[in-house]
Design a protein that fits this description.
With 784 residues, the chain is of the alpha/beta class. It has 27 helices and 26 strands. Strand 6 and strand 7 form a beta hairpin. The structure holds adenosine-5'-triphosphate. It comes from Paraliobacillus quinghaiensis.
């Protein structure tokens, strides 16, 4: 037996031992879990038998409530411990299959012997609970594995730095408890293993990269210094992967006070949400909150306005021919900028003096306080008070008026009529109150006048409750009409910063606001305005905000998010080359080099997703493309095919898909520029194949052939990608350059670019040795 085989046998022996112990633990916990589960089922089944339900008398109602509460608490406590144990069990099940993936032998300074540290997705102690058989990959000592090659190394323990030497660094592939392979590695964690992981088929769900995290990615995952960490990473450099590993790391590092519900991830679309949803559970952690910025805005303003989605805004942009003179396009740019924010801030200061618009306060159709009265009261309040403080005072004043109204209305006939509509619990309460208030006498009789008074009280309070609530929420302030004034003539200032078509933009804006429609470019500014006007209620429960595809956020949106989460740390991840929204091309993009260097910035330049030829091809038309490094994974050259017309394009498309299917690619994406184009292509393809058309509302996708617009394919990847029509006409400007780059970089193994007519100048720029070029004319269409 050679040295390697001997080592392998020894390691397998250790694996066996560890797996045996894991199985024992699983058995022990399973029995415990089963007992608790039976108990939970039992409690649920007998829930109503174990509580005494009696609603006849008030005392009984109170007793019933207490009994219900006690029973519910008991149940939820059991359910909680059942949940925790089941989670432990899940983790153990995963460890049983593959207990660890790495090892380092580390000799601490001053020690004579190195200790072996085995690293896996969770920690495991030996039987005596004394030594670690496996270290969690997030433990301080595990960072050695990701950060150093064999040789001198150190790591940061809780309060000190530990120095020493790594004498061995090894990687394992263990499946179903069997050691399938093992390598001793240098600095980069297993080119070997990485090659094999990256060479696999694309999945419809993102995978965890825990076993092969690269040193530069580890800097992101374990970063604890920065309040705002900005990651600029080229396409496929592992930004999203690192972000999710970072969530898992933070949950472990701050497990005492950070829970998954204190973390939120803003992602580009719903499809992406589900794409990444399995990574954390795979690592034994609960998912963080996930949302899209659009969904967030919609929950804030959706009941007042119909809100355009960013995708509809994008479709509009992509269909406009002349971007220079289109007012809407100009508005998209301007309203995303900090200049516009300043303009709003200035407008807000003028409102201190004049301009606030209010709504009438009515009750049962009758005017109680007119908007004019509110206006006059508001502007009589001291000028040095802020608007939100003054509004608080108005609330106070209005509530007093409502108190007076209550006194008057209570005596009216309609109130008595409505006492009939009160429910049983109200009557019981009134009776109880009457009994409590009546001095003890032999002959207790219910005083009917008093009873009527109490019942009237109940009715009027019930009816006024919604009005009081609305007042407390400032519904008497007419935010929309106040905001509209910003776009009206009386407020027009002359400024060089205003866009040329400002007048027209103003008209368009007030029209759509009046129709209760918010364009995407108006949504954040409006919400900002509303929040500042009424007083910002910052979210303090979120401790960490992750923003993926951060390049697509405007400077305005970013400032808004900072205001919304003032006490949160933030991790922003993006790629300036994939900026596909018009506002994202501006200089104030948070990821642009020109942006102020006030945040810590980590740059990732190595791309892992695509083969080397694909990375070299796609980076050729990007500014600074020479800085994009490919991970060394071989593959075939991308193919560019120019055809004369759509009919040849359709034939070639079908031909290529057949080709890719024969090569056993499991996810094949036909990426189009717009939704409309996607619909046409999908219709054509569905004559021959089973295809899925992905639109903005798609939540998941299956393996097979999908047709998708480029902007929705953000963040995800496919075995093979076909760009439907990368013609000169379709891809010309900056945004289209980025869109084409984003689309092409979705390919892991193969890329085929069709062009109907002359190919885009961006592809013309690519050195000819970086792709295979075909031109197919009508008369040649039957050849390849
Ligand atoms: N260290 C790693 N080990 C294994 N696979 C990795 C590693 N880093 C990245 N990958 C793989 O590379 C691919 C791209 O990763 P990811 O989607 O996180 O990149 P990204 O920078 O967010 O990409 P994009 O900006 O293009 O959407 C994924 O398949 C991911 O699993």
């Amino acid at each position: 037996m050679g040295e390697y085989e001997e080592d392998l046998a020894k390691e397998q022996e250790r694996v066996n031992l560890v797996v045996k112990l894991i199985k024992q633990k699983i058995n022990k916990i399973s029995t415990h879990v089963k007992t608790i589960k039976d108990r939970v089922i039992d409690i649920r089944k007998n829930f109503w038998e174990d509580v005494t339900v009696n609603l006849e008398e008030m005392d009984d109602v109170i007793e019933t409530q207490a009994s219900l509460k006690q029973q519910a608490e008991f149940l939820s406590e059991r359910e909680r411990s059942h949940g925790q144990l089941s989670k432990q069990l899940d983790t153990l099940e995963r460890l049983k299959d593959s207990p660890y993936f790495g090892r380092i032998d580390f000799m601490e300074e001053g020690e004579k012997e190195a200790s072996s540290i085995y690293i896996g997705i969770a920690s495991l102690m030996d039987e005596q609970e004394e030594d670690f058989l496996i270290y969690d990959w997030r433990a301080p000592i595990s960072s050695l594995y990701y950060d150093y090659p064999p040789g001198k190394a150190s790591y940061q323990a809780i309060d000190e730095q530990i120095d020493g030497e790594i004498t061995l660094k090894r990687q394992y592939i263990i499946r179903q408890g069997t050691l399938k392979g093992m390598f001793n590695t240098g600095l980069t964690i297993g080119d070997h293993l990485l090659q094999s992981v990256l060479g696999d088929n694309a999945d419809t769900k993102m995978k965890s990269i825990v076993a092969t995290i690269q040193q530069e990615q580890n800097q992101i995952i374990r970063n604890e210094k920065s309040r705002i960490l900005v990651v600029q990473g080229v396409a496929g450099s592992g930004k999203t992967s690192a972000a999710l590993q970072r969530v898992a790391y933070l949950l472990y590092r701050y497990r005492e006070h950070l829970k998954s519900e204190n973390i939120v991830l803003f992602s580009p679309n719903s499809l992406f949400n589900s794409y990444v949803a399995t990574v954390l559970p795979e690592l034994g952690e609960d998912n963080m909150k996930q949302t899209t910025f659009y969904r967030y805005i919609d929950t804030q303003l959706g009941d007042q306005f119909a809100i355009e989605s960013p995708f509809d805004q994008m479709e509009y942009y992509l269909q406009v021919n002349d971007h220079q003179s289109d007012s809407r396009v100009e508005a998209m740019r301007y309203k995303a900028s900090l200049h516009f924010k300043e303009q709003i801030d200035q407008f807000l200061t003028t409102l201190i003096e004049e301009g606030m618009t209010f709504r009438n306060v009515r009750f049962r159709g009758k005017l109680i306080v007119s908007k004019k009265e509110i206006h006059d009261y508001f502007y009589k309040l001291k000028g040095n008070l802020s608007i939100p403080l003054r509004l608080e005072k108005v609330v106070h004043w209005l509530l007093e008026k409502i108190d007076q109204l209550e006194e008057i209305e209570r005596e009216k006939d309609w109130v008595l009529e409505e006492t009939e509509l009160l429910d049983k619990a109200d009557y019981l309460e009134v009776h109880q109150q009457l009994e409590d208030e009546t001095p003890f006498e032999e002959d207790v009789f219910i005083d009917s006048t008093k009873e009527e008074e109490l019942l009237r009280n109940k009715v009027i309070k019930k009816r006024l409750r919604p009005l009081r609530k609305k007042i407390k929420r400032f519904y008497f302030t007419d935010v929309k009409n106040t905001y509209i004034q910003l776009f009206e003539a009386s407020h027009q200032q002359q400024s060089d910063l205003l866009p040329q078509n400002w007048q027209e933009i103003c008209e368009l804006t007030s029209q759509s606001l009046k129709a209760n429609f918010l364009t995407w470019e108006d949504a954040t500014p409006y919400l900002y305005f509303e929040k500042i006007l009424l007083g910002f209620q910052a979210n303090r429960s979120i401790q960490h905000v992750f923003i993926d595809e951060a390049q697509d956020y405007s400077a305005f949106q970013f400032v808004y998010l900072q205001k919304m989460f003032p006490s949160s740390r933030m991790t922003l991840l993006g790629d300036i080359n994939q900026a596909i929204y018009i506002h994202a091309l501006e200089e104030d993009n948070v990821l642009a080099d020109s942006a102020e260097e006030k945040h810590e910035k980590i740059t990732l330049t190595r791309s892992y997703r695509s083969t080397k030829p694909i990375v070299e091809f796609t980076s050729s038309w990007m500014p600074n493309g020479d800085k994009i490094e490919a991970f060394n994974r071989e593959g075939v050259l991308p193919v560019v095919m120019e055809v004369d017309n759509t009919s040849i394009a359709a034939d070639k498309l079908v031909y290529k898909i057949n080709d890719y299917q024969a090569a056993e690619h499991q996810t094949i994406a036909v990426i189009c520029k717009t939704m409309q184009e996607s619909e046409q292509v999908s219709k054509r393809l569905s004559q021959e194949f089973d295809v899925t058309l992905m639109g903005p509302n798609a939540h998941t996708y299956q393996k097979g052939i999908i047709v998708i617009p480029a902007y929705l394919a953000k963040g995800i990847e496919f075995d093979a990608v076909i760009i439907y029509n990368a013609s000169h006409k379709r891809y010309q400007n900056e945004l289209e350059r980025n869109l084409l780059y984003t689309a092409c970089t979705r390919a892991m193994h193969e890329l085929f670019v069709l062009s109907i007519g002359e190919v885009s100048t961006f592809i013309e720029q690519v050195p000819k040795n970086r792709f295979t070029h075909y031109k197919i004319h009508e008369f040649q269409k039957n050849q390849r």
